[in-house]
Every structure is written in C-alpha cells, then in structure tokens.
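Run folding on both entries below.
>entry_1
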Amino acid sequence: MIKFYKNFECDYSIDVLSEIPSGVRAFCFPGAVEGGYVEGVTVSIIPRADSNQSWIGTFANGQLSPRAVSYVGACPDPEQLCVIAKGDGYIVNVVRPAEYVEVPIMPIMGVTISQEHELLLMHSFDRVIAWGKSGLSWKTQPISFDGVRFLGINGDILRVEVLDVPAKRTVIASIDLKSGSTEGGAR
C-alpha cells in the first residue's frame, strides 16, 4: 500500500485507499471527471478549509515503465496534493479538484524534496523538474540517455547520477536548485 508523505505543511487530511466507498463525491484523473473511476491510486481528501467538501480521487496509472514510481505527498503549496500513479503525475488543488495539472514529464521514475528550497523534485529517464509553491519552478534539458538517480542535496545543488549510454558508464550532474541550470550530465 502506498503511504502519504507529509514533507510540507498541508491544509487537508488524506487517506490512501484500496477501494472506493459508496455514496461519496468522487473524481477521476486525468480530466477531473466527477463520478468517474480509473484504475490506479485512490485517495480520500478532506480539505481543512471546508470539511464538508471531502472527496475521493482516483488517478490513472501510467503505462510507460513497470519501474515507474507511485507516490502520494504534500506539495509546497499547502492546498496542493501530488499523486503519482505508476509514473503519471498529477498536482491537484484539494479544495477545487477541477484545478489540477498533469506533471510535465513521464514516466516519473523518482521523487525527492528540498524543504529548504520548498521544492518537490521529480525525475524521468532523462530530465528533472522542480515543483514549488507557485507551480513548475524549472525543468532541465535532457541530462541523461536513459536513467537518473538522485544522490543528494548540498546547499543549492542537487547531485544526480545519470546514464551515458554511448560511453557505457554513469556520470554525475549538478543542478542548481534555484534556476534548474545544469553542469555535467550525459548530453
């Protein structure tokens, strides 16, 4: 079962569910279709701003990689929730579920956070994005041919290991957490 990561303060309570209870307001994503259902990650959300407006969300599984991640976690914006279902990512406003965006990389293969920079960091096979309080903060150019692995954060720098397929080796890339500019990598 997937657990909820409360790495940032949030204005809601949440439960990850294995099935949908009957008689509740439900939305499916993508599309924020009220009353719909998709196979994937299911969550129950109770916004603190209006506890009478609880709802259930089902989030469609991605199909691009069997190794893609599933994740449910708070975002830097306390009214937003991040749900990743087998690599397909969604950022949803918990008070107004029709206000959502699909994360602009896929499949999402890894997630980490920087509380100091108030960033949710996600990577695909070849690039990294940062999601902040105001939405997408930055997206790197491709830095790998087929693989990224988060190594850690030191100050304003995120270090990642990337796969350089032509050279048949891994190399290190450094990403500035403020701008998304990169140094190193495989491309």
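>entry_2
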Amino acid sequence: MIEEAGYLTNGIVWTTNTVSNETKAVLADGTSFQLANGAVDTSSANISVKSADGTETSYTVVGSKDDLNTSDPSQHQVYIDQTTGALTFNQTIASGSTITSNYNYKTVDIDLTTYDSDGNAINTSLSLNGSLSLDTMLTRLNNSGAGVSAFYDSSTQKIAISTTQTGNMNASGSEMNFTSSFF
C-alpha cells in the first residue's frame, strides 16, 4: 500500500504504531526471519539477538541488502525490508536464540457508518497494516460486514464505494459516513 499511495488523488494519513520487545524464538539456524508487521520505519528499529548461552548482541540496521551482503560478518548487521518486515541478517542466527525487535510501523484507519434496512447504524472500524495492497485493504472492507462494495478504478485513479443494499436506509441523512482520512 505504501508504494500504491502515491497513485491516489487524496493523501492518506498514516498512523504510527510502536512495537516494544517483540520476540521471535529461533527454531532452526538461519539468516531470514519475519517481524509481525510490515510498513516498518527502519530508522526507529532496534534489533538484538540473545543466544542460547545468554549472550546478547545488538545489530545495526543497514539501508539495503547490498550493504548487508558486502558487510563484514563481525559487524552484526541486519537488513529490514520496509514493506514486508522481513529480517535478513549478515550471519547465521543459531537455533535456540531469541530475536528481540523494537520498531514503529504504519497503519491506515478506516472508520465508517452505514445503515441496515431498519435504519440502525452499523459502525465499522478497520486498522490495516500499510504493507497490505490496496486491493487487499478494499477486500477486507468489503468483507467487514459494513454492507459496502469498494474497488479501485485504475483509469480514474480513484476508489469507488457504494452500499450493497437498495432503498433509503437512513431517512435522516447520508447512507455512508466516513470519519477517517482514508476516504
């Protein structure tokens, strides 16, 4: 989504979320691991590894895989894919170790109210990780129970959204009310 955001006519307001002490147990030797979130602000990230013997090592976050691939393994470096949250270390992390991560990541919030056939408000709030594609975000909105159908029209570069019910569902006003910046 972060890559696709530039194609939208209106700006998107991203919400910054902080993760403290996310831990990942290393079950097999390797150099590639995954954070729980994508859309990571790598400038905020701190990654450390505690080996099975209790030794803790801090890793420096590098800006590209090229920096990592040419680095000296004694330098303890890690590359974080900003979009996916994938971690790639410049050395093998041994089974039995624990990776601890602190970082910020971006989400976009969708808040809307629609109405059922009796005129009762249906309030829907979604917080979607910025690593999701726009298509996936719209699919989650469509499947949220809000009673809407949304899609991205690439020819107009706009999102189209409509209710899935026919008739006047809110005699006193709009049938869809958005209170977030996404729409």
